[in-house]
Design brief:
Structural class: alpha+beta
Strand content: 15-25%
Number of strands: 18
Shape: elongated
Helix content: 25-40%
Strand order of the largest sheet: 2-8-5-6
Largest sheet: 4 strands, antiparallel
Distance between the termini: 22 Å
Number of helices: 9
Length: 384
Amino acid sequence: MVPKGWGNFMLSEICSKPISYGIVQTGNNLPKGIPCLRVIDLTKNYVNLDDTIKTSLDIHQAYKKTILEEGDIVLALRGEVGLAHLIDESLSGINITRGLARIAADRSKIVPDFLLWALRSTKFRTDLMRRVGGSALQEISLSELRKVEILVPPLSEQKKIAKILSTWDKAITITEQLLTKNQQQKKALMQQLLTGKKRFSEFKGDWKYVELGSLLGYKQPTPYLVKSTDYNDDYETPVLTAGKTFVLGYTNEAEGIYKDKLPVIIFDDFTTDSKFVDFPFKAKSSAMKILTARDDVSIKYVFEAMQMLDFTIGGHQRHWISIFSNLKIAIPEIAEQQKIASVLSTADSELKTLKQQLNRLEQEKKALMQQLLTGKRRVQTEAA
C-alpha cells in the first residue's frame, strides 16, 4: 500500500538522464589519465583517486553519458550488486567502468540524498535482487535495473528523511572512528606494557622468558562439543569458536558445558587464533584446545602476550603441542602480571562499550530506515 501523498515509480521514471553503464575498455592504465571508478572502489570508506584506474581523454569523451556530476549516484551492477555511492564535488568529472551504472536524479521529483537512502532500502534491494542473474558472478542488466520500483514521498518529506538518516550516519561514523582510535591505543599500550618498555613504579624485579607450555595446561574439547547446531538466541549456553565469529550461536544442551576453571583461553589448533573466555560455554570444533593457567600465572596476561607473538602458520597441522607451546613470552612476577592484565582489561571494557554502542546505533538506523522509507512513520515537514 502506497502512503498518502507518496508515489511508486520505476527507477527510470525519476532520472533526468538514461541510466547507463560505464567504459567497457579503459585502454592502458595511464598514470595521468582520467580516473575511472570500479566496484571495488565503492567498497572502501573513502575513494582515493590515486588508487583508481585511469583511461585516456579520447575514451573518456567517447563515454560522455557516464561522466559523473556532483549529486549523481553510481550503483554496482555486478559482484556486490546494489552497492551505491553519492558523488560529491571531489569525484565530479571522472568516469566509471562497465560494472557500475550512473544514476542522475530528476531533482524536480527526487532529492539525490534521499535517492541514495531509497537505493539502500529493504524494499529496493528485495526488488533488485529478484532481478539479478548469474551464478558465479551475480549481475543485473540495465533493462532490469530501470524497472526496479522506489517509493517516493513529496520533496519536503524527502529532505527531512534524508537529513534524519544522515544524522544517524554521522553518529555511527564518529563511533567507528572512536572505536578505531581506542583499538590503536590499546595496541600501543600492549606494546609498552607486555615488553617491559613501560613499567609501574612499584615493580623492580627482572622479567624472564618462559615457554607457553610451562605456563598453560590444555584440555581437549571432546567432552564439551555441542551435539546439535539447532541454535537459538533464546537459549542460554553460547557455542564458541576461536575464530573471528567467536559465538556461533546458543544451545539448550545442559550436559557437557565447560565451567570448571574459568577464565580460559580457547585456541584453534590449525589457525592459532585464540579467544579469552570468562563464562561457561560449549565448543563446536574438535580442533580447539582449552588452555588453563597455573595458579601462579595471570591467564589474562598470558593471553594478551600471545596476541603479540609473530608466528607464521606452516601447513595444515595441529600447532599447540608441536610448535606454539614451545614459543616464549616475557613474563614478570605475578603481581606485575595482574597489574598489567587489569590495565588491559579496563581498555577492553571501553572497547566493549563502544562496540555495543555502535551495534545499537546500526540497529536503530536499520529500524528507522524501514519505517521512514516505507511511510510507516511520517515526518513533520516545515510546510506541514
